[in-house]
Specification:
The protein has ten helices and 17 strands. It is α/β, with parallel strands linked by helices.
């Protein structure tokens, strides 16, 4: 499991460290750095697989001459049942050349051959391709999921053989068509069942041949196209994508992301409550937690929803409050360790009863008691 992430000088993230749980929630106002945190992890994966360059001033916090550093640490248990940490460090001050391996109680994989802590010993050089492979085993391909319902309205190409949902869910037609033929029982039918549970009026997902616009056909070439519909089998009625609400399409995309056959080991989600009726938020969280338990994956998501925050009442240590300092750098506080515990310790010193924040996390956040709210304008 990814246990700790430390980031320096990446966009607004001047110097932040998060100790992660299985399911993590990032809260805070717009432009506070939540998405930048997810993007840093996505960039780390792309860079490890040589799909991105670090030589881009846009990636740096204010001054590109400062060193960018992204360190991810995994907690693992080996044969002796002792916990060890596996560290991967991406650092920008030299050209990536080699990776170092520490044979003691942790592994250190570094995209350079310098600036290794002096106390580390027993180092052996291994190839960079080994790093990418090792990261893939622990993380899988990383992408920040932010479904765009507008891209589901038009017909989509099929026969693309894509088993992973795109970050914006733009390939949902081709994905569902493949799932119908290859993973009917454990993906397609399960997605239908989940959809029916949350939106009872629909119990079937239909795919039908369709003619794309000239613009879409030019974009994808000579392929077969289909469109998505949701049906009520008892009434014999099908509503096609252009007749469905954005919220319904978003929810369908979210269910496909959750139920895809090979989800990444670390799932990054932007605002999973978007377009979802408030009464369905708990069901969305139930699906996400089921995915975590059944497929042993980890989730980091952002939100602006007090109701989604309420779903973390029993695990406030999994919530991270994002804000910015006077210089525009992101600061991050752990809700349990940095907000709730200090507040109640201060109350105890003053002889005041503790505040039961977890009884109404969303409300306390909205009124500003937890931090991570928009600042008042002058």
């Amino acid at each position: 499991m990814l246990k700790r992430v430390s980031i320096q000088n990446f966009k607004s993230l001047k110097d932040v460290t998060l100790d992660l749980q299985k399911v993590n929630l990032l809260i805070g106002p717009n432009n506070s750095g939540k998405t930048n945190f997810l993007k840093a992890l996505e960039f780390f994966d792309l860079y490890a697989n040589e799909k991105a360059s670090i030589n881009n001033s846009i990636l740096f916090h204010k001054n590109p001459s400062n060193r960018m550093s992204i360190k991810v640490s995994f907690e693992e248990i080996f044969g002796d049942d002792k916990k060890y940490y596996v560290h991967y460090l991406l650092s920008s001050f030299v050209t990536p050349s080699e990776i170092l391996f520490n044979k003691s109680n942790s592994q250190v994989w570094v995209f350079n051959s310098q600036k290794i802590d002096s106390e580390e010993e027993n180092k052996t050089t291994v190839s960079k391709s080994s790093t990418a492979q090792a990261l893939d085993v622990r993380l899988g391909p990383l992408k920040v999921y932010k479904p765009d319902p507008n891209k589901l309205i038009q017909p989509g190409p099929v026969g693309t053989k894509e088993e992973l949902v795109n970050a914006d869910a733009s390939n949902l037609v081709g994905f569902l068509d493949l799932m119908l033929g290859k993973y009917r029982r454990n993906v397609f039918s399960r997605t239908e069942a989940d959809l029916h549970k949350c939106i009872p009026e629909f119990d079937e997902i239909n795919l039908d041949d369709a003619s794309p616009t000239d613009e879409i056909k030019k974009l994808f070439g000579d392929k077969s196209f289909k469109r998505i519909g949701l049906a009520n089998s008892k009434q014999g009625v099908t509503y096609w994508a252009d007749e469905l609400s954005e919220g319904t399409l978003y929810f369908l995309a979210l269910l496909c992301i959750i139920n895809q056959p090979n989800p990444p080991k670390l799932l990054l989600l932007e605002e999973p409550e978007k377009g979802i009726h408030p009464r369905r938020i708990r069901e969305v969280m139930d699906f996400i937690r089921r995915l975590v338990a059944e497929k042993d994956i980890q989730v980091i998501m952002t939100t602006h929803s007090p109701l989604l925050l309420d779903e973390f009442a029993e695990s406030p240590e999994s919530v991270f409050v994002f804000d910015k300092d006077a210089e525009g750098a992101t600061i991050v506080n752990n809700l349990q360790r940095d907000v709730i515990e200090p507040a109640n310790q201060k109350n105890a010193e003053l002889g005041i009863p503790p505040v039961h924040f977890t009884d109404a996390l969303g409300e306390y956040w909205t009124i500003g008691f937890l931090g991570g709210v928009p600042h008042e304008t002058a």
